[in-house]
Structures are given as C-alpha cells and as structure tokens.
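Handout, tutorial session.
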Amino acid sequence: MTNFIQQWTTRPTHAVALATLSFSFFSPTLHAQTADNPQSVLVTAARQVQAAKDVLADNVLLSAADIASSGATDLLDLLQKQRGIEITRTGGAGTVASLFLRGGANAQNVVLVDGIRIGSSTSGGATWSAIPLSEIERVEIVYGPLSSLYGADALGGVVQIFTKKGRKDLALQASLATGSYQLRQFNLGVSGQIVDGLRFSLHASTEKNKGFSATRTGNFSFNPDDDGYQQSSVSGNLVWQASKDLELGFNFLESYLKNQFDAGSFYDDRATQRLETRALFAKFQVNPFWSSRVQASQAVDRGSSNAYYGSSFSDPFLFYDDSRFTTKQETLSWQNDVKIGTDVLQIFAETRDEKVSTSTEELNGKRSTNSLAASYVFKQDAHLANASLRYDHSSQYNGKVTGNLAYGYRLSQELRVNASLGTSFRAPTFNELYFPFFGIASNRPERGRNGEIGFAYDDGAAQWNASYYHTKVTDLIVSTSVCPVLQAERPFGCAYNVNRATLAGFTAGGSVKFDRFTLRAALDLQNPKDDTTDTQLARRAKQHANLALDYRFDQLKLSIESRATGKRYDDAANKNRLAGYALLDVSAELKLAHDLSLIGRWNNVFDRDYELIRTYNTPGSNVFVGLRYQN
C-alpha cells in the first residue's frame, strides 16, 4: 500500500489532487455503522447513507441479527436464500463457486468489502469461498445496473459486505459450533474505545470441515475421497475522531482457505485461496453542507492449485497442474457530498489499477481505469428521484459512459411506486483477452441496457417489494467451439463477442408479522435467455422461490424454511438438463441468558439429492449446533 500511494503521488495530476484532498471532505458513504440505526439504512444504492424507505433501487438488507439467527455456515449458504440469487458449486463449502444475480453471471456483479472492490481479474467476479461469514456484520444486496456508480461489471447488481466494527463500549464476542461432516468453528472478537475518540475492533476465526466427495460417478475426474477445507481469518479496524470535523481510519481483512477437490481418481488434489483487503481513509466536514472522503485501498485475490488431471501416473494424457494466480487491485477514490436542502449532489473521482501475476506468462499484465462521476439524489414531499452519470477510461478498452435515472412516488405513507432506466457494462477478463489459444485481445466490453418498474410497501408490520426488470446485453462474451477469427491459432474455440442476451423477470419478496409469527417469502420468475441461440443461459432456472415461517415465544425462536428451484441446463446448448429440486430446513435459537444463545439448524431435512453442476455433489441432510456469546 505504501508503494501504491508513493507511485500515485508521483504523478503530477494526482499529486495536485491529493493536495486538494487535504482540505476537502467525504460523507459517511460505505460505512453503515455511522448511522444511528444501521438496520434502517442502506449506503450501497447511492454511495451515501439513505433511509431504507427512500431507496429506489431494489434491494435486500441482511443485518447482524439476520446473519446470527440464520444458522448459515458460510456466506453462500446465507445468500442463496435471498430473492434474485442462485449459486453453483463444484462440491461442498470451500470449493469453486459462482453467484448469479437476477440471471447475471458471476463476472457481471460487483462485490465490495467495506467499500473495497474484490475479485479476480483472470476468471472474473469474486472468489466467494474465501469470504468468511464469521467476519461479517452486515450485507447489502442492490439489484440492477449500477455501473454509473461503481463502474465496470455492475451489470446484474452489487453485493456489499461490511465486516464487524467497534463501538464506544467495550464488547466481547465469541462463538463455538460443530456440525455434520466433522465441522468445527470458533470465533473470537473484541471491540471498544481505547481512549476518547479512538475506537478499535479485532476479530479472528477458524473453521474446519472434513466434507464429502466433490464429484460423483460420471464425472471425468471422479474420486470417492472426502474433499474438505480449512479456513482461518482475521479482520479489524481502527478509527480516530481527530476532531468534530475530521475522522481518520484503517480497516483490513485477511482470509486463508485450504481446500481439497477432485481432478483425477488417484491423487489428493488441493488448492489454496487467500483474500486480503486493507484501506486507509479520511473523512472531513468542510462546512455544514459539504463533506468529503478520500480512501486508498488494496485488495489481493491470490490462489494456487496442486493437482493431477488423469486416471493414474501411467495415463498418457496425465496433466499436472501447479498453477498460481494473483490479482491485485489498488484504488484511490475521492468523494464529495453537497447537501442542497433535502437533496444531495455527489461528485467523485477514482483511479484503479488491476495487476495480474500468474504462472501463465501470457496473462501477466496490468490494466488501469480512471473514472469521474456525479449523482443527484432528490427528495421533495411525495417525490423521490436520483440520477447518475459516470465516465470510465481504461488502458485496455478506452472510454465508457454509463447513466441511471430513477423516479419514485409515494401514493401513501406506506406505498411507493417507482421506475428506472440504466446502462451498464462488463469488462473482459484477462482470460478472455490473453489466455493462450483461447483469449482474443480485441474483445470488447459487454453492454447492458435496463428498464424497471416496481413498488414497495411498508406499514411496520408488513414489508413487500416487487419489480419487473428487463435487461438487454449486447456483445456478450461466450466460449465458442469454432472461433470466428484466428481459427488456425484457436483450433478448439475461443472467447468472443458473438452473442446477445436478455435478462428479464419478475421478482417479489417481503415479510409480514402477526402475533408471535413472521412469514417471509420470495419469488423469482425470470427468463435468462441467450438471444443468439434462443437457449436458456446455463445453470440458471426460470423459477425459484423461498418460503419461511418464524415463531417466537419468550426466549425461543423456531423457524422452518423451504426453497425450490426449477429445472436448469448445465451447458449453453441446453443438452444436459439439471432437474429442479425443493429443500426444507429447520432452525432454532434459544437465549440462555441476556448475552448467551444456543443455535441449532437442520438442513435438507429430507436428504434430497440434487445438483447445482452436473456430476458434482451437494450436501445431504446435515446439522449444525453452536453457542454464541455477545455482551
């Protein structure tokens, strides 16, 4: 990070900007904990704190209480129960995974940790298995095109993760859990105020799972051995309120994952994944109307594998994989918020460097993106609106302009209707550009155009949201079996801009409380379609739904949850069908004391056999039991 800041300040224009920043400002954007009640606000939808009832973009908020009571053992277990989200995995927890947001592919979504962008520039998208749920305090999911705020890849939406933060009072958190497949988890954290104005937080966790065989009979790399994982992580932050107008801070996350997988039938194939984020930030209140924030951050996605692809050491087609791949993203951002009555004008600039270092020499390189954006959030009586415009200039794909316009109208205090239009784009990955015999250096960014209408209802006891969205994607990059160009150099196909796609559907969800019961439901009816081939996009269903009922009595909470998914196809040609499935989970939480809780969960109660990827296993019926202490 020090080298990054030194390099950035040596550029004349950057040095001037940084000098200006010394006298400038930033709002509490991207830090939910600055709000009095973090459960009632979102920051991701507009890069600023907004009351949840004023957010026009379709969204889901998962609070610390939601996460704690979910009984989920990892982040993807938690997210797959939310509307608009589907996942795939090459086995159990710890294996390679992807997340589809409203039908958008893993590389078509932006993932942030405390405002720091993470992900792999080679494969595209976040490495989900490396993100530890134990370090997470809050999750915000915002659906729809957000490139006008976050730049490349925010085509399907943005998922922002907030790690645990410190408060003024000294607090201790600890949890211990065990479960099926010899799962063991232990978490410990402490936070508080060192001296007046200086807050800190430090959390660490470790977990281990023996797992089950990642593959099943029929897979070319089938191996019946168990494929488990071991993960350790630590996160922390330090915030100094230097004066009533100036706040300085530092936060970080470190996660290390070792997992087993199946590449062949005779070797214990292993992989490692390391996720690192760190950021220095300063927030300054210039005057009652003008605030500013500058942040220098770094995210590292580092992985390696040790595997033999083949049936034995005598296999003539035996292939040994000892690959290493690292993506380092270094970002400097400056955001200014100006209050104009009840409105907010926002202007921000950003520079981001992506550096790729791998054992495949052709992939090694760097891509730089400089961005300038502005947005305006309007609020007057029953009217709500926001508009944003962003320009991104990349050293690889030149310039892209994206915009978004949204309007909402309150028909009553409880009911609001809204509509929006937006554009977005996804940058090609380094694999799609430079991988030997596959990438095409001239590949262009994918482009998206979205239109959306919806409503939101909240009367305190019931909250419901519904939206119809329609996104057209052009210049879709797909893996072709016959490369349209350079066929002699790409005899087995390539990545190329040849297709168009439509991501359209209806999504609805919400909850209602009555007496001691809370009913929660979500429904997605979508048509993720490849318009060029008239086929359903791979591994995405046209229907999926969730239904849950919670019951509270004194210190006990009982929940029963079900989720169902329609048929999918494992391939782009729609030849290999994946059957639909329905699962039932039950959970309980008992408060043993004011600061001590017992949590239990039984997943896949009826032991359903289902597939997320063809010939890869999924968990059978399994249980989880844990103790949680928080003073």
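The second record follows below. Compare its token runs with those of the first.
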Amino acid sequence: MMDAGRHPKIKVLAYSEVEAVDGAVGSFRVTVRKKARFVREDLCNSCAECAKVCPIIVPDGYQMGLSSRKAIYIPFPQAVPSAYLIDASACLGNNPIACGKCYDVCEKKCIEFDMQDEILEFPVGAIIVATGMDVYDPTEIEEYGYARFSNVITSMEFERLICAGGPTEGHFVRPSDLQRPRRIGFIQCVGSRSEKYGSPYCSNICCMNTIKDTLLLADHYPDTESRVFYMDIRAFGKGFEDLFTRSKAAGVRYVRGIPGEILEDPATGNLRVRVENTLTGELEEHEFDLVVLSVGVTPRQDSAVIQRLLTLSKTGDGFFMEAHPKLKPVDAPTRGIYFAGCSESPKDIKDSVTQAGAAASHAQILLNAGQITLDAVVPRILEEACKKCGRCAQVCPFHAITWEKGQVAKVVAAACTGCGCCAAECPFDAITMTHFTDEQLKAQIDAILRDHAREKLITFACNWCSYAGGDTAGTARLQFPAHARLIRTMCSARISEELILYAFEQGAPMVLVSGCHFADCHYINANRQTVLRVERVWDKLEKLGIRPERLQLEWISAAEGQKFAEVMRALEPLRAAVTPQEIDHAMKALAEERHRKEAKERAAREKAAAPASS
C-alpha cells in the first residue's frame, strides 16, 4: 500500500465510497463520497499525541475485537494515508464541556471538527472490482459455543493472537487466563461445505491456512500439541502437499471427522471435543486448552450495492459472475469492468495476485486501444415504428437503452451486450436484433417443421448455457432422442411470446425454452423476463384450449450435458403423446387469434389516420 500511495500515477481515495457509476466502457463517470476524517491528512505527521489524551476507548476491529483503540486512531499499520482519523460515532465532539482534548494537544492544528464529506466526480475508462470477501460468523453454531466459551476462537482471531503486531505483541496466550495454550484443536470447514450452516461451497483457503498455522506453532512452540479435525484436506496447489506432509511429520495429528459438540470445564476453561473418527469408526473425546474454528469466507454483505452500481451478475453462491469461466475469467459481463481477488470467488493470495495482474493487463489493453470494437449482435430501433412506451428500457439488464417520456428510445451500443431482451419485449416490432431478427428465427422454425413436423421438438437454447449443454452431451456421447432441433439465441430472454406461438401455429407438437440457471444468467437477470413471458404464453394456450404442457421451460448449464440428455429423454414421451388432432386445433386456433389481432390493429390504424385524411 505504501508503494501505491507514493506512485505518481496512482491516487488512493481512502475512507471513501463509490455512490454512482454512469456511462459505458471507455467513458464511465464515477461519483465518490470522500468521508470527512476530521483530521487534515496533509498536515498530520502521526505523532500520536491526540490518541494519548483521547478518553474514548472502543474495540479495535483490525485486531478482531481482542484489543481496543481510541476514538481518534490509524486504522492499521502502514495505512495510506499515514494520518489519524476520528470515529465520529464514538467521539464526544468539540464541545468544551464534553471534550476537545485532541484539538488542544495537536501542535499542527490538524483537527477540524467542522470538516464535511466531499463529493468527487471523475471520468474513467475501465473499472476493476477488488472488494474482497467477508468471513463467516460461527455464532449460530451453538454446538461449538463460540461467543459463549472464551477459549473458542476463529482462525482470524488466532492470526491476530500469534502475530507480532497483534494485541499481545506476539505473546501467544489464550483469552480466558492469558496463559499459553499447549493443546490446540483446529476444526475445519466451519461455515463451508454445509447445507445447514454457512455455505455449501468450499472456501478454498481454510485447509492450507490451518496447515500453515500448525507449522508455525511447531516452529515457535515445539511443545505444543496440535490436532486437526477435518472432512477432507484439499492441498491442491503448488507445494501444498509438501506442506501437509511436513505438518504431519512435525507431530500434528489429523483426525478425519467433524466434532459434533464442544463442552467447557468451568473450573479450568479447558474444552472437551467429541468427534467420530470416520477412519476408525470410533467415538473419541479430546481435551484442549484452545479450539480454533477454521471459518469459511462469504461474499461481502454490501455486494448488492456494487452489483447495482456496475450492473453485474452473481452466481448462486453470491460471488460476482465472470463473463466466461474459461475464456474471460477476469471480465465482467458489463464491458470495461474486471474482477480481481475474492470478489469473484474464494481464492488465496497467489491466485488473487495472478487475477489482479490479469485484470490490470486487460484494463490497460482497453485503455491503450483508443477505439472499442463492439459486438455485432446489437439492437436497432426503428424510429418510425417506436411508440415511445419505454418498455425496452425497463427490461434492459445493462441499462443500455435510454428513454425519456415522449421520446424515441436510444441504444448505447457500448453498454449493450446483445441479450435481445428488448426486442422480445417490444410489442410493436420496433426493435430488430442484428443476426437474430424475428425473420431469421422464424425461417429456422419453418425449415425445421417443413417435413415430419410432428416428430420435431423445437428447442430455443441460450448460447452460453443450454446450447453449450447440448454440445457437452454430444461430445460425451450421451444417448438421448434425436427429435430435438436447437435454435440458438444469445439469451433465452430473446424468445418472445410471438415466436413461441408462431412455432405452434406452424405445427410444432412441443416447444422447449431453455437457458441459464435462474441465479446464473450471463445477462444479469434477463432470464427473469423469460419466465414472465413463458407464464403469459401458458395462460394464453390454456384460454385457447391448447395443453400448456406442450410448452416447457428448463434451466441447463454448459456443464450439465447429463441434464440436457435427461431433459430430452423426459420430453420424448410428452412429444409422442401429442395427437395430430391437437396439433391441427392449435394451428387453427392460433391462426384465428392472429387474424383477429391483425384486424384489430388495422382498424386502429385506420381510425388514427381518418382525421388526418379528412
């Protein structure tokens, strides 16, 4: 951080929050609130005289609450800028009756109690999201007694206790009596890989962090007895297995099994741990001076704010979703935005640094380009057909369509990613998608149903997930009925109600709309519109006497080739059960419905044109 703070081309805005992000790739405009520090950072020399006289003491968040700080403080060692700030929520203020001691003692007169927040605006070409992650709070796991037993601590608290810059200045003690613990138990996967508590995913860093801690204890305190309770040790990285081997060689015992309960001896503060050793099948009880809960990581609680500001997608576990897991692992779906570190997924320092370098390189490539190459798949608004309703702007997940009441909608091509949701939403056919026009999609439907229509299953497949899932099933040589005919679109949200009804009118026995999983849409939340449209079509089919079961909706990811095959096998009996009479009825009913709609629209146009002609 010191290097970044001194770099002539890097401006660090500490103690600040991003409030708004406008524009598109290459021309973002960022609004930042720089919070009032109440201390002039350009004058403060960190002499600490103010902190010495401050009477307010609060828990120190940097030290995980294991020590205290004053209301005027430096957040952590080597903070940038190296200047004090005042915690306004704790400070008594500058009322002479209340306090003002820090102001009186400061020789440089750095303290300004009337300092106000600053609003800064500046243009940027690219944005890197490196917001990190949060750590799981194990308080809800009552069996472990965290927050009830003082000698049950988290791995983060253990790091502060053993650190030379920690609350005990490197003297390793346990919280209850400040004595050095000689028997320590580590419990893995606390808040990870659990359907009951925390998250179902692996947090990636916990196993190796514990192995590192056991080696540290063995090196500095050779008489310490360490035991690790685990489900699986995931030592997958370079040199990780060697560290695991060294830990066992140092005398650390690894017990395969997660404890079900921790009990405390009130007299000594020692802890008894009960666990089933799944390797021996025996129920064991261990006594420790200190128990460390190896807690998992979670997405930041305020990630929803960043998601809204930057129009980002999230995966089912709550982390931000990249544009493509293999081809664009650091790119966000919104062009010009990149990820670094644990904002995208749990990862260790090495992987975080690697991704940060890749993100910086991608951003630099973009900034050096001078010009931006846009995707060919963008919408085009037909001004003469646009009714200025604004529905397209309401459903665009990337806010790439601007609209004002009474004005024709406009597309910001640099912000558009080509999902096609706007074209499917427009009721007046005023939007056409390049390379995915209604005419092109209808032509594919016509070609599929030209011969042996009753044997075909029209399948609209999302380019990123369900279409790729079909490829996965094919390359894996999975067996499934060959009646499905895939029509690729960039997103399932491109499929309008009109296209589905058109397929039935042309004689399709069944139609399948498929796309990304509900929480994993590559276009933020576009597939929510898919659900709404399919539900409206179901209602319409039922009113026309057509079985709604003939229209199916499925979510299939690119890796789920097995599910793709299962869905095709499950739909085959449904397709075969559709009778020729049902197909004929649907074709006739939908044709009549279309003719009534066209007649109504024609009458409305003639009525609107009548005053002008007279």
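Points raised in discussion: The longest helix spans residues 580-613.
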